[in-house]
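Trying the structure run again after the queue cleared.
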Amino acid sequence: MQQNPTVVNRPALYEQPDPSDPWRHAVELCRVSLLSVDEATCIDRIIQALSQNEGGWCVTVNLEILRQITQDKALYELVQGSTMRVADGITLVWASQLQGTPLPERVCGSNLIFNLTAALAQQGRSIFLLGGNPGTAERAAAVLQQNNPNLRVVGTFCPSFGFEDDPAQIQEMATMIQQANPDVIYVALGFPKSEKLITQIRSACPQSWWMGVGISFSYVSGEVERAPQWAQDVGLESLYRLLQEPRRLAKRYLLVGPPFAAKLLLTSCFRGMWQSSK
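Done. Tokens:
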């Protein structure tokens, strides 16, 4: 099994676009290409690819992921190897609007795990839940199954702490997923652990779609309460999460995130002004 797929800086999705192809549009933020699509189109693209036995890897890029990949070349190249990238963050949408290349909406993994799964269930397709806190994947799977009776949950697995340094456990996960043969694998290990693991084992199921979904298993299972929609829409979801886990998230949301967000928005504003003056 191929453990380290070749990194492609510009997936074919972005190369020499057909003028009639709605997927020809991409927006760049901090040199990272993001598909200019809404959630419904993202779901349709994945369903269509599955119907053609074409697998892939979707990265939902939020503000923190964008910050990390712009500051770490290895992570940038890792994410560039994905099949498609979408904007999972209202700040990214605002930045795209300021620079004059507006994204239609945020496409977040915490919504896709519900709505993509519902679309999969309509076709009797299958999912595998990998990661999360111990027991969370099983509880999330039960909720998704209850909401979607036609859904096939073909497996769940929570790797032990330090799995990334254990080749035997990584191989065990690859074999387990290969035998389950799911249509979509949701990976909830956080960034960049999820993405690194995906690049190592996705060749076990090349016809499947892989997606890192962060803390979504905890949202689905009810272990963690998600911010209300109004808070998400006005950019207060991070504050809501901070109030829930202040010790773990204080550095990210108070010291690291705001300066990067301010820089992103300011840079995008200047870029938009420069473009409009040309």
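The first strand starts at residue 26 and ends at 29. Worth checking whether this holds up in the mutant runs.
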